[in-house]
Design goal:
The protein has a seven-stranded mixed β-sheet, sandwiched between helices. α1 runs parallel beside α2, α5 (about 125-140) packs parallel to α8 (about 210-224) and α7 runs parallel beside α8 (about 210-224). β1, α1 and β2 form a beta-alpha-beta unit. About 45% of the residues lie in helices and about 15% in strands. It is α/β, with parallel strands linked by helices.
Length: about 220
């Protein structure tokens, strides 16, 4: 399995995550520095013993970072391998990443999502935003996905050419992948994972208005 971690302005949580995955799993790790500021470079340098580091010269967005890593994986790995994408902010626990990867191995045709249930101390904007997107997504596609915004996903390397065709360079990229999957009858499987929000999710770079509009615009295009 190959694990992809797009990262923009990460903090120590990224180092802790990479170290834990290196120690507890046999995954190959790829981290994309999506144009972080120069003062963050030392953090990426510290990851080089454990992960392949890919870099953007400037910030291009999460979708673009994922595509950069996916292009690298498709060039260097067999189509029979699996890919797991995760976030850099500590929301995805190593044990949940392993569970999602195992679910994919059991059903490699599936797109497997690590699905949060938003229980416990969850920021209101995160809980409300996901509930609205979940409703709009189901209404638009006829497919119910509980956590449409999860960044923890697993799929086969053979899916990468399709993934690279998807429009969107920022957060809207991930919803576009789900829309494509519903249109082409790719099975979507959800695996329940822990809901983790650290310090009210203040390290997130998601802008509710700007990025929310990009997401809903993709859904409107799909409906049209």
């Amino acid at each position: 399995m190959v694990v992809i971690i797009p990262a923009y302005q990460p903090d120590e949580k990224l180092y802790q995550l990479v170290l834990a995955l290196h120690e507890k799993t046999s995954f190959d790790l790829i981290v994309v520095n999506d144009g972080s500021k120069p003062e963050i470079c030392s953090l990426f340098d510290s990851l080089k013993p454990y992960a392949t580091i890919l870099e953007h010269s400037h910030n291009r967005g999460k979708g673009a970072a994922l595509k950069t890593a996916l292009s690298y994986v498709y060039e260097h790995y067999s189509e029979q391998e699996g890919v797991v994408t995760i976030d850099a902010d500590g929301q995805h626990l190593p044990e949940d990443i392993v569970r999602v990867s195992e679910a994919w191995k059991a059903a490699p045709e599936n797109l497997v999502l690590g699905s949060r249930r938003f229980t416990g101390n969850v920021p209101f904007k995160s809980r409300a935003g996901n509930a609205i997107t979940r409703f709009v997504f189901a209404l638009s596609t006829g497919v119910k996905v509980f956590d449409t915004q999860t960044g923890l996903r697993a799929f086969g390397v053979f899916r990468i050419p399709m993934m690279l065709e998807m429009k969107g360079d920022r957060y809207e990229y991930e919803i576009n992948v789900l829309l494509y999957a519903t249109r082409h009858c790719i099975p979507i499987q959800e695996v329940t994972i822990q809901t983790v929000y650290i310090e009210d999710n203040k390290s997130s770079h998601f802008n509710a208005l700007r990025d929310g509009w990009r997401i809903y615009k993709m859904i409107l295009y799909f409906v049209a």
